[in-house]
Amino acid sequence: MVRVGKEVSAKISVYQRFLFAYVLHVRLFWIFLILAVLVLIPFAIWGEDFETWFSQEGAIAWLNRYGAWAWAAGILLLVSDLFLPVPGTAVISALGYVYGFWLGGLFGAVGSLLSGLLAYGLCRKVGHRAAEWIAGKEGLEKGERIFAGSAGGFIIALSRWLPVMPEVIACLAGLAHMPWRRFVVSLACGSLPLGFAFAAIGAAGQSRPILALVLSAVVPAILWVSVRPFVARRSKESQ
Question: How far apart are CA 227 and CA 182, in angstroms?
């Protein structure tokens, strides 16, 4: 009877751990879903209009209206993508058309970086207690473990070329208090290829950025693998 009781107790313990892990994943999923819905609401309301206004041709015309300040207008548009359904890749292509590959790519990368930093900073400012209330103590700890590890860097870097995901992932990183240095480096690994790849498309006068999409998806992973050992070493030194 004692042996049977131990077996039953062990099975119950395994079931409890499974149930706990399931609930934890479900809660994280719901947080992700809520953030995604909040980002998608402006797309549902104004998305079609913004796609028309800021097609590559429309974005070029819009930038030209600002003359010497077109670069600042383009960066501001990319930052506003956090709140408005701005087609960021079209804006970066327009910057490439107006300023050429190097300057257009730089401005596009800066806009993407600032947008990610703003999302991260705003959600990080929510505070640990508020983040714990939103995600739960265990959920927050799990998020912190994910974003503190190398997987978090990959997630940030690879998210920059996807629609909607950059803002959501940056917000999650902020809530999970992803280490600042790791976030900035991985964000740069995603934003720099994105900026220069789509600026090259604009500078070449092309409108079908298949190669740019491929480069924006592959190069960030290569860059993060290259810089990850340096980031990990600096993190250990600062502890």
Answer: 10
Average pLDDT over residues 18-37: 53
CB-facing half-sphere around the CA of 174: CA atoms within 13 A: 21
Identify the sign of the CA torsion 193, 169, 208, 96: negative
CA–CA separation, 138 vs 70, rounded Å? 46
DSSP code, position 178: -
- Mean pLDDT across 88-94: 89
90: exposed, middle or buried (C-beta count within 10 Å: 0-12, 13-18, 19+)?
buried
pTM of the model: 0.76
Cβ atoms within 10 Å of 232's Cβ, excluding its own: 14
The neighbour count for residue 237, using CB atoms within 10 Å, is 7
pLDDT digits 0-9 by tens, 210-229:
777 677 777 887 888 788 77
In order, the DSSP letters of 64-102 are HTTGGGHHHHHHHHHHHTTTS---HHHHHHHHHHHHHHH
Residue 191: both structure tokens together:
């934003």
* CA 86 to centroid of chain Cα atoms: 15
Q: What residues does each domain of the chain span?
A: 2-238
Percent helix, strand and coil across the chain, each to the nearest 5: 85, 0, 15
Phi/psi zone of residue 206: left (φ > 0), alpha (ψ -120 to 50 degrees), beta?
Answer: beta
